[in-house]
Amino acid sequence: MKHIAIIGYGVVGGGITAVIEENKAFIERMVGDCVNVKYILDLREFPDSPYGDRVVHDIETLIDDRDISVVCETMGGSHPAYEYSVALMRSGKSVVTSNKEVVASFGDELLRCAAENGVTYMFEASVGGGIPVIRPFTTSLAGDSIGKIDGILNGTTNYILTRMKESGCSFEEALSEAQTLGYAERNPTNDVDGIDSKRKIMILAALASGKLVDNDCAYAETMTKVSAADNKAAEKWGGAVKLVASAVIDHANDKLALYVCPQFVPFSCPLAHISDVYNGVMVNSPVTGDVMFYGRGAGRFPTAGAVVDDVCAILSGAAAAETTPVFEKTSRGAVPFAELKFEYYVRTRPESKSDALEFLNSTCGKVQVIDSEDSGVLEAIVGEANLDEIRHICDNIGAVESVIRVWKNA
Amino acid sequence: MKHIAIIGYGVVGGGITAVIEENKAFIERMVGDCVNVKYILDLREFPDSPYGDRVVHDIETLIDDRDISVVCETMGGSHPAYEYSVALMRSGKSVVTSNKEVVASFGDELLRCAAENGVTYMFEASVGGGIPVIRPFTTSLAGDSIGKIDGILNGTTNYILTRMKESGCSFEEALSEAQTLGYAERNPTNDVDGIDSKRKIMILAALASGKLVDNDCAYAETMTKVSAADNKAAEKWGGAVKLVASAVIDHANDKLALYVCPQFVPFSCPLAHISDVYNGVMVNSPVTGDVMFYGRGAGRFPTAGAVVDDVCAILSGAAAAETTPVFEKTSRGAVPFAELKFEYYVRTRPESKSDALEFLNSTCGKVQVIDSEDSGVLEAIVGEANLDEIRHICDNIGAVESVIRVWKNA
Fold first, then answer.
1. A74 CA: distance to closest CA in chain B (Å)
2. Which residue among A154, A252, A308, A338 has the highest number of C-beta atoms inside a 10 angstrom radius?
3. Chain A residues touching B26 at Cβ < 8 A
4. Which parts of chain A have pLDDT scores under 50?
């Protein structure tokens, strides 16, 4: 029998015990032995749970028990998740996590710590919930130089944008609905301001480039300003507004750009069709072209299932034979967001439409009018421009109501 | 230095040497050594190729050379691919293939032969070209009991259906265009009659169930009868006509149904949005829910890249630690297609629309009229019905122009 432990018995932690019960036969076949949850470390007691007698409150209990070979860290947050993981790995235990914050902040150190102690640190569940995405990066796509990653990596915001599009409601109404359904937290900042998506794209970019950039080298922009009118304009243009996290990796010149912002995504890109709480990760590389991984990006069972997959990979020995990612914490080659050029969707109420159009035509390489029939409103795609340039453009075409970047293909 | 060989220096085989050159640094890092193509077995000579001096014509040269540890079989067809693979594995060489025909026909024997000889048989490139799909089945999704697989597994037919939808042209016109572009072969039977898709769904179902069914236990229906009118009706209904290969796996009752046919796929299903030569494989399991893998399903580089991934997995030792699939050749539990119940799209020219509708309403559990305004035509979704029942329905509602199944969710 193989013994494991769980740290943090919340939504995901609770899912792990359920998945291990549900898929007992499959897991035994894969691992070659049955898997037992020996301890659950949590601040709380769970007297009504069949696992109530496994609950402990001191990390030392796990560290000191030589039976435990793998620990699932599903507590979230950087601290003490980081300190616990280091202590466990130093005592010879492998760690599997669903915690994107700790991986995005300390992934380099945690992977190094694992290597130094001859154990494994895995984090499939930290990005894309149950979608197998980390492993394809380290196995199937590992031989290929990935140049672009685009992901819808946050289910909450994608649900909000889907509802806004479908019902024509405002951001506030859609958020409130998402909160009622349990898809959004009471304080939705991490989701709606792109912080959660930023952590995930930092992790994916590190897998593809070896570089885990400093937090302030990746740009995140809120999606709270997206309006029903923007959604309508996107549809008319032939696409949808999505909160996309992007990584542009230039291996030859050792450059890397990471950004999360609302983007006009054309229907020709499969990300435009991802609705509700689903996630998608699209990867472009010279050999394979575009590949996309799609599925439920969050939720108790998909995320717990991904944790259990990693546990099985470690216990079966498969993980030991796979190439372990190495992350270097660095800002080297990080391109400032302000320098990146995009096309932009702009909605404005100019004093004179003809003057505004004349200005745009004389300033921008591209001007595509989406709508100018609605009285007083001018909607157009313009660009390409960097941050200074689009500001200059906006300053000169009247009262700007909306500016949203247009998604760029690899 | 690790030595490999290629059998069949066609589109994919030629891609392998190109990918190995292109991704030399990555491959070396993964394998821990450089990889050399020592032999290319082909009937032809390639005097103009830089690999011309590696060309040999006798399989014995490969079998007798102890330097060769992995052979890439990219010749296609069942024979002599099967015999060559067996002989190579018996002489201690692992085999990697892109050949879906040989895997669908002899996968059980080839996997057993590999196990008996302590070598590896891998076939990532046989389904979905460059999309990592086989490995996720054997690693990430292995702990989960997959209940349904739906795939757009043939790029040629998806290109034809996309063109028909976009331009309103006929099947014949779209096929001719696909042939001009090199997407379809001069004899397109394997693609358009669903034979290629059937082989691929047989392989995926075997990975999920352990059962490689006999060829005649999987149903394949041609897509040549799909018309521009069907495409229009699907759009009006809220979806697209796709050639979908499906596997329904009932683990509890040991039942399995495999079928390939044109299906009305609703836009809520991501398969409906897959256009051009792209492929997608959607997998449903209780823990993970729906997951989809998407990408270029064919083509020189994606397919060759997948072969090279398998080669690297073997040479790095990763493959040895992964769970090897075991296929049992069997018809046990295979559900005859005639017994399966579907909803159907039906287009008919009834003598009396009201009589036809009255018949449908009295016979079918569901009748959803799509169009009855076009003079003489009645378009509706009806069902559910099995094969006998839908035949009976069609016999009673006038001149039927089209009958297409509606895609069922898991």
1. 17
2. A308
3. 142-145
4. none
